[in-house]
Amino acid sequence: MNSMKPKTQTMMETTTEDLMLRLRWYHSGQVRSLTMFAVYVINLLISDLIQICCLMIWVVLWLANFWEDNMVRCVSSLLYYGAVLASAGFMVCIALERYLVVAWPLWYRFRRSIKSSVLVSIIVWVFCFTEFIISSFVPIFRPSSSSSPSPCSSSPWLGP
Fold this sequence. Notes:
This protein is mostly helical.
């Protein structure tokens, strides 16, 4: 009797598998025919790489007992959560591109260009990081009596 144990995956394994699937798809040659779509997929890949690098930094900091009041943790947290927002933004861009291809194929073929996709990608990156940095450093969700010298130690997103 062979009992099958369910395989449990950590967040790092799932993210790594997702990244490997995207890399395989990129190198398979399908991206060359979908150039405007490829801009968003490549940016999504970059945001996933940023997330994986930040997770590795967090593991090293945790194992080395340098987690508390560390500027590296602060910067990696800002990068990680900004990349999470960018990843969601690029998934929305991919969904909108697919919608435009199906709903208005002629308009999409003659009006869309790689320049517009690159411009939208730049806007997504800038918006995600500025939104997260502003929400991390401006005390909107904190009580007015708590004043902390370090924005990272008092941020509701980056932990105590």
